[in-house]
Amino acid sequence: MARLRKFASYRKVERPYTRTSKFRKKSFIRASPNLKIIRFEMGDPKKEFDYTLKLISKTDLQIRHDAIESARQTSNRVLEKELGKMGYFMKIMIYPFHVLRENPLASGAGADRMSTGMKMSFGKPIGAAAQVKKDQKVCIVRVNKEGIEIAKNALKRFSKKIPNSYFISVKENKPVTIS
């Protein structure tokens, strides 16, 4: 199986190039890769919690879908173990829409037979990435007062698995009274 390229190849956020061809069948990316992200919402979505913690990005960049899934698994494991399955609500706020493409070029002996150079260089889809802007919410966790430190720890673990630097904001949810 082929290795993943380094993240530095895909870090920069730029407008995706879309092929425009005089032949209609060549004017789009035919296959979009399967996402590794299993779930975007975990815990109890219907329960009212006292506090909301947000993981907020400090800069613009792209995050690959496999990194998001890895971060989700580690932080969800912490929350589920400490607070139980219904003691929190976690939601991933980004979605990997951006299709990453690669134009494979062979190198070494016999490479002249396989590659076409830049003649047909649009590239094959190899993965997907979420484009994150500065000050955008990446993940939110809702917990009660006794779970704040556990949720902070879970969000720190989430941020360690994905590139970039982040900060955590804590906000108290005020109860709504209808009169």
What can you tell me about this protein's structure?
With 179 residues, the chain is of the alpha+beta class. The chain has helices at residues 65-83, 111-114, 148-161; strands at residues 41-43, 51-57, 61-64, 89-92, 98-102, 124-132, 137-143, 166-172. The chain has a domain at 33-100 and 123-171: Ribosomal protein L16/L10 (Aldehyde Oxidoreductase, domain 3). The protein is 21% helix and 26% strand. The protein has a five-stranded antiparallel β-sheet with strand order 1-4-7-2-8, with helices on one face. A three-stranded antiparallel β-sheet has the order 3-6-5. α1 (65-83) packs antiparallel against α3 (148-161). The N and C termini lie far apart (63 Å).
What are the salient characteristics of this protein?
179 residues; alpha+beta; 5-stranded antiparallel sheet; 3-stranded antiparallel sheet; elongated
Secondary structure blueprint with pairings:
Blueprint: E1 41-43, E2 51-57, E3 61-64, H1 65-83, E4 89-92, E5 98-102, H2 111-114, E6 124-132, E7 137-143, H3 148-161, E8 166-172
Antiparallel strand pairs: 1-4, 2-7, 2-8, 3-6, 4-7, 5-6
Shape call = elongated
Average pLDDT for all residues = 85
Q: Which class of the domain at 33-100 and 123-171 in CATH terms?
A: Alpha Beta
Major beta sheet, strand line-up: 1-4-7-2-8
Task: Please report which band the strand proportion falls in: under 5%, 5-15%, 15-25%, 25-35%, 35-45% or over 45%.
Answer: 25-35%
